[in-house]
Amino acid sequence: MKTFTLITFIPFLLLLATHRGEPLYIPKHKPSSAPIHSKISQEDGCANIHNKFKNAGTKEGLLFPFSDLKACYESFSFDNERRIDTIDTMKKIFNGFYVFTDQAKEQPSQGYNYESMDIISEFDKLSQKEYATDFEFTMDATNLVTKLKDPHTLFFPICYTRFIFTQKIIFYAKLENETHKVKVFKDGAEAENNDCEVEKIDGVAAIDVITEFARDKVFVSKDLGVRLNMALAALSLQQGTYQLHPRSAQYNLRTILPEKETTTYQLKCGENTKTITRNWEAAINNPDDLEKFTDANSYWENLCANPSSSQSKSLKKSGRSTKSNKPNKPKKPKAKSSNAFYNADPFGVNSEVLKELSPSVDVGKPVFETITAQFYMLENDVGVAVLASYDIGPDLSDTAITNSFRDLQTGFKTLADNGAKKLVLDMSNNEGGLIILAHFINLLLFPDASPSSPSNFRLTDIIKKAIEQAGDNNNSIFNFNGYLTVDEQNFNSASEFLESKFIENDLSPIRQFLSEQEPLPWKSSDMIILTNGLCGSSCSSTSLLFSELHKVQTVAVGGFPNTPLSFSSFAGGQVYLLDDPLKRGFDLQNDIGSLGLNDDPEFTKDLSTNVMVTFSIRRAFSVINNEEVLEYAFKPSTHHIFFDEKSIRDPSKLWPQASSLIKS
């Protein structure tokens, strides 16, 4: 039986890249000098944050002024050498490894809303802009990558994302008389504002402001309706409890420094209208970070610099510059002398902030629950499987994965044993995880069909070299033995693999496990998939396959009135890291290095700042139309419903609505 090789089963939430509580590796050598901006005032914003923390005597529950965060972030001067290195690295990723570089230039298909672009040319434009601070350039690079609306692909600066900005208020949208009304989901400062209508934001219609924000700033989907859903409040099942999803309410909970300090909201509460003004304040996402700095200098050294890069050790003060020097000749990588660990999910959001803005939810007692799912029985013989995630945690051993198979199979069997005739698959806010779990669910419910979508790499020169060099190297993502032909045969050679689409070589252990289980009773006509559009990565490997191949009905909730809404997002194919912060060995730098190609002129070098770079390295294709790239194919739901003031706070209210649409 084929073993579960980690390189084949990389979790999607390497996008959201580590599991909460795992250590984020930051290489440490001798401290580097912080590039303090020449215009910094005597008021050191980073020092002010430290002083407030020390005076409070606690790391918990602290909120820091917007002005201090802005001053701290803007402390560090722009350096043209860092820009040259960064742009060179990103261009090599998008030229050599990113699978959608060409498709990103094409106009969106009908139903999608995003800006097509030549990402290489856009990075070239950044080389000509004037900058005063490192923050300005880094935000331009961050925003440029997010314009792709591909959540597998990120330029995520650790330096400028350690805090979450909040105004202690979040919103939802309710459809009334065929028009959207923005309402207060929860106000942590003034509870009497809950469910008041938000008429205007800074004098502009609230729905217009939030729609513009979703269009420009949210990147979870190419569908603007899904992005609107995530700009607003959304609850998800997390560790057995429904609470605010960490990547929802993005209009009100911001990882990136807001453009200004205050916002004015005009509210209508009953027949009365009032105006409130809220300041942005910042909570640190990982309270232990407060121990890591005392001022701007130490903030840069411990949270911003990447000392594994020699360039970061010679940072200097710099004013505005558009100088386009040639990059320095590549230097041999220096050995890492010691490890420092950063004990937090780099994408995590302060748990106290989420808890304060989450409602109390009681959806009843499940008949069975697992790490990633819960199973419920409703009236009228309706079973509900809440598939919250395909991410099982840090233990990716054969035993852990087999236990996940067993738990999921038991959950569905429990529904069948309880007499469920209809099956609602609630996959809302499922950001993916292990592709093998998607394949398991696909085979569990449809054992006689192929569970996999075809995929391939973009065959650039360096990827061709990597595939040819990998041979039978089992530790490489480019090893053709990790894949099968679309009709589930082994590849005989790298040259055969180069000419083909392929699927993951993970089906034998699934089929062996299922051969010992009784089949489940449901047909495709007995099922419906419920999502808010955020069913991404390996989650979409289930929802899209069920819809396309098996004609399972889908219902999407939220979005815009009279506008079709996607039931899945970022089908991608596979996400990969430039440099895994956990140093587990499955990242591009380690992979290419193991193949002896790290000195290839087409390969990247270390970034000089501490940035997580992820990207789509494979693309998935439709099982019906094998030339249709799923990432760029608009797939609207069969049915479309909307939240109200009850269902937005209790997702179980949507289950009977979804089940009523099943016509078995």
Commentary on this structure:
The chain is an alpha+beta fold and 664 residues long. The protein contains 17 helices and 27 strands. The strands form eight sheets. Strands 16-17-18-19-23-24-27 form a seven-stranded mixed β-sheet, sandwiched between helices. Strand 17 (373-378) and strand 18 form a beta hairpin. Helix 1 (45-56) crosses helix 2 (66-73) and helix 4 (119-126) runs antiparallel to helix 5. The longest helix has 20 residues, at 398-417. The model is unreliable at 1-32 and 309-344 (pLDDT under 50). Residues 1-23 form the signal peptide. Residues 305-343 are annotated as: Disordered. Keywords: Signal. This is 2086_t:CDS:1.
Total strands:
27
Q: What proportion strand?
A: 15-25%
Unreliable segments of 5+ consecutive residues:
1-32, 309-344
Distance between the termini: 38 Å
**Major beta sheet, specifics?**
7 strands, mixed
Global shape: globular
The average pLDDT is: 89
Count of helices?
17
Could you tell me the radius of gyration in angstroms? 25 Å
Tell me the domain tally.
Answer: 3
Structural class: alpha+beta
**What's the helical proportion of residues?**
25-40%
Task: Please give the order of strands in the largest beta sheet.
Answer: 16-17-18-19-23-24-27
InterPro entries: ClpP/crotonase-like_dom_sf, S41A_metabolite_peptidase
Keywords: Signal
Protein name: 2086_t:CDS:1
Brief description of this entry?
With 664 residues, the protein is of the alpha+beta class. The protein is built from 17 helices and 27 strands.
